[in-house]
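User: Good morning. I'm curious how FE2/S2 (inorganic) cluster would be positioned relative to this chain. Could you predict the structure with it bound?
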Amino acid sequence: MTKLRVNGTDHSVPIDPDRSLLYVLREELRLTGTKYGCGEGECGACKVLVDGVAVRACQTPVGEAVGRSIVTIEGLAQGEHLHPVQQAFVEAGAFQCGFCTSGMIIAAVSLLARSSQPSVEEIRAAMDGNLCRCGGYLRIIDAVQRASRLSSGAGGAVP
Ligand code: FES
Ligand code: FES
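Assistant: Good morning! Here's the predicted structure, ligand included:
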């Protein structure tokens, strides 16, 4: 067993070096908001933040995440208050089936942490590794722009 810090809490999990971070999050910790899409690094549905940077959990051996801060979609809201990016996705209607949404939101949080007012081109580039089978890309871009404005209006960067 080893400790994994997820959403601000230390969890004891069995470490099998062959396991992906995605497997441990979903199967050991039951954090099923992070989705298994392709399992091959192509779709972005499995993205989580590791030390604030979006990574594909299906391609990340869990051993690489030990000692680092992992944030999943379940860790973004503060109690009843949605994270600004979550709020923006709701306001923009930026999901249909929702399967890609947690990965999209995690990618957007990572982008806005390094670029608080990204251009459309920057948004497209940052979200390039996230696929939406429902084709909701225009609304997703709108949502990221809204999140940027929400955060600016609140007088601070996206947490
Ligand atoms: S499930 Fe990880 S990139 Fe598709
Ligand atoms: S909303 Fe269905 S895959 Fe994106």
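The radius of gyration is 15 Å. Residues 95-101, 132-134, 136 surround FE2/S2 (inorganic) cluster (ligand 2) (CB under 6 Å).
Let me know if you'd like a different ligand tried.
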